[in-house]
Amino acid sequence: MKIEIWSDIVCPFCYIGKRNFETALAQFNDAQLIQTEWKSFQLDPELPRSTPYGSTYEYLAERKGLSIAQAREMTAGVAATGKNAGVTLNFEKTVAANTWDAHRLLHLAHSKGVGSPMKELLFRAHFTDGKDISNADTLVKLGKEAGLEETEVTAMLGSDAYGYEVAQDIQEAQNIGIRGVPFFVFNRKYAVSGAQPADVFLQTLQKSVAEWRAEHPDGLTHVTAGPTCDPDGNCE
What we know:
The protein is α/β, with parallel strands linked by helices.
């Protein structure tokens, strides 16, 4: 059964949601039936590509009209939530950057069967290590760490490969009404919006897999809402 997850790499709740979902999956007896597909979503596509904007604090201060101190305070609670989920969000180090090329790299990784490891490496690079994920050299190194060939990553970054797939994911998100990420779609019937606790994911897994065994329904009929980040820069 397929679970599609729309997210952006610079979205802290997407990282938290990923970890909570993985916690639920580890507790799920039929985890071997689950196929996970990461879908692209950009919170701020207007950021310049291949050029870091600056620190997350500077970005939030300019975007939301805050002081640097207020930006620090704004992210402190999110960092604490991340720690409780088992992820490290070093907002003192994070770099605001366009994620277009990182999403293209994810599509390449998915085509090679290493989409989920690539996603984790990108999250860790951005939030924990403070790497500029718009930088080509950084993406090549991360791709190699995920098991991709350096030559194929370099060739992809030097072309427009997978740009259509990224744009298609973003358009699809608009078509089904996704306004914030993370957004988890279970077998195109159930959806979980936001960084929900692991038990919410587990309950949805149990329900959707039980129904999937009997039939393959289309359409989203239930959405459980939780903390998300939206394109206006609001994470709540």
